[in-house]
Amino acid sequence: MFCHNCRMGLLALACVTVGATFGCAPNQSPDQIREKTAQATSEVTRDAKAMAEGVKEGLSRDKTINLNKASKDDLLSLPGITDHEADRIVAQRPYSSTHELVSRRIVSQEEYDKIKDRIIASQ
Question: Taking a C-beta distance cutoff of 8 angstroms, is the pair 67, 101 a contact?
């Protein structure tokens, strides 16, 4: 699920969290240790999920989508593109430039500005 570097980072994060939890108070009862372990585990899990979402978002952000060849699902991955807009993009192919989404009134200029760096129009 995670690449080697991500796994190593998560392991380091877990070690730091657990070390900080147990290294500061040596006279803790077993119940306190269990509670702190559960809390640390919860924090590491939350942080790992956030890291995974960040990696996923970063990978999808760098991907450009060709308006002339993209599937509807690919188009829906663009920020703000609705089901209706994706259908219209597919129906009005081909495009010679990405700005035709605005000139053909498929999306507003504001919506176009959000996606213009992630789309291309090549044959």
Answer: yes
Q: How far apart are CA 26 and CA 10, in angstroms?
A: 25
Q: Where do the CATH 1.10.150.320 domains begin and end in the chain?
A: 65-120
* 81, 75 Cβ separation under 8 angstroms: yes
The single-letter DSSP state of residue 107 is S
Q: Read off the pTM.
A: 0.52
Can you tell me the distance from the alpha carbon of 14 to that of 42, in angstroms, rounded to the nearest whole number?
Answer: 10
CATH 1.10.150.320 fits 65-120, yes or no: yes
The pLDDT tens digits of the residues spanning 84-94 come to: 999 999 999 99
